[in-house]
Amino acid sequence: MKNIPSEAREPRLLDRPEFIYSVVLFLFALVTVGYAVYRADGPLQLRGWPVALFFLLYGLFTIRMGYDHPRVGYVSFDRVAQLASVLVMGPVDAAWVVGLASLIFPFGRIRKGVTWRAITIAALNNAGLMSLMILSCGTLYSFLGGEIPLRTLDVPELILLPILILTTQGVNEIGMRVHTWFRSRGRSGARMNGFAFALESAAGLVAVLVAIIFNRMELPITILLLTVLSLGMISLRQFARMRMDLEVIVAERTRILLIKTAELERLATRDQLTGLYNRRYSDNYLDGRIEEFHRYHRSFAVALIDLDHFKRINDTFSHEVGDEVLKRVSRVFSARCRQTDMIARYGGEEFLLCFPEADVATVREICEQLRRAVLAENWSDLAEGIQASISVGVIEIRAGMERRELLNEADLKLYAAKNAGRNRVMS
Known about the structure:
427 residues; alpha+beta; two-stranded antiparallel ribbon; 64% helix; rod-shaped
């Protein structure tokens, strides 16, 4: 068996901060809830085992009625069962029932290929966080005078029930932030999501309705209500999944559209043969630079470059070879110019280079380097006997110049270089 490099191995559970945090949270919750049960003279002081079993199963069902949201994470209706169990059984019994449901549920994801490590961390964190959340927030609600079991909506309950819902939201949010902080090694934390907050707040209101009917109505009515709510949860989950599928389709089509838009933009501004900017882009670029010069006195210089005897290369060695010469010359220019310089194929064998914040002497030296590089290039792999050189005209912008005057003067310098024997730079 080959040894796996240490950096490629998945870290052990004991090496993962989120696992250590989840274990500590779970053990703390176990001790706290256990002590609360002891102080209450044992479990199920208000309701019997059938009610506890019902809320355990109902809690698993409401968690199951969820879906994976790409931005929020797993979204479910578990707050319905959690808060309803508080308002029916009291915070102590609700805490261990909710904690047990949260501990059991993640193990059902084994079928989906989730690793045992991820399941263990999720089970311990969820069980610890949910049980402590229900115990603390439910105890606060009871301490402030909230009715348990809840049967009516009097003025005190209309004030205290929103407090119960909001405090559970707050404790849950803080717990998720802490867990995410440990999971990301302290680099980031979970952010509150408005969609999840609204969904869980609405679930809290439904929980109040469930508790009142559970505590006051006959069993058939309670079963009917829970059936309607369950069908509603199933429908909402299906609708949410359809909405997510639609979002995925829209996102994919948007991505394709952006790619095509970028490609069209590239085709509109780039020369297809060399990949350099085309004449349309370079004219607009020069207009912008000239405006900056007149407004802010940011000088620049341009070089108009022409391949010497390029028609002879096409006629002697073929247009295909001529295209390869253009490509190679373009690569020479790109490799030796600054990233801030603009390089364009301005015509058939003509190139326009713009050098921001550079005077004519600096640009002349750069163009001399380009000329020597083209002359020293080995062209024998394209055809025997081929040789390429360039002639260059350099001009620096002056007051009162527009694009036409600038390019005309650069063109005059280029022709002067050609008339002087080609393969040279004139400025």
